[in-house]
């Protein structure tokens, strides 16, 4: 190891011994993840002008909703079954936890009130 790398490893740097983090630094305004970089290259969101006629505004809203729903990545049937089973198991666990706590509290109160 060179003298400079020993100093850096020991926490000393060339400017007064202050510690500086070593690692990747984010440049302001630039994305650091590949997903953010990919999304930054996409076109800007569509801006819809509002109309004074309430019926045409409702139609524009529904068109916008349909447009946004087309961009959603929907889960497959197998994923939905997995997610449903996980949610049901968690629900059973939480219900059992609440019921057990309720039973223990009522039992404890009955013992105190005797």
Question: Could you please describe the fold and organization of this structure?
Answer:
This protein is an all-alpha fold and 114 residues long. It has a domain at 76-113. The protein has helices at 3-9, 34-40, 54-69, 77-113.
Q: Could you give the distance between the termini?
A: 76 Å
User: Oligomer, anyone?
Assistant: single chain
Mean pLDDT: 78
Q: Give the radius of gyration.
A: 30 Å
Secondary structure: helix percent? 55-70%
Number of helices: 4
Beta-strand percent range? under 5%
Uncertain residue ranges: none
**Total strands:** 0
| Largest β-sheet summary | none
> Which structural class matches the secondary elements?
mainly alpha
N-to-C order of helices and strands: HHHH
| Apparent shape | elongated
Concise synopsis of the structure shown:
It comes from Corynebacterium jeikeium (strain K411). With 114 residues, this protein is mainly alpha-helical.
Give a topology summary.
Elements: H1 3-9, H2 34-40, H3 54-69, H4 77-113
Name its key features.
0% strand; 4 helices; 114 residues; mainly alpha
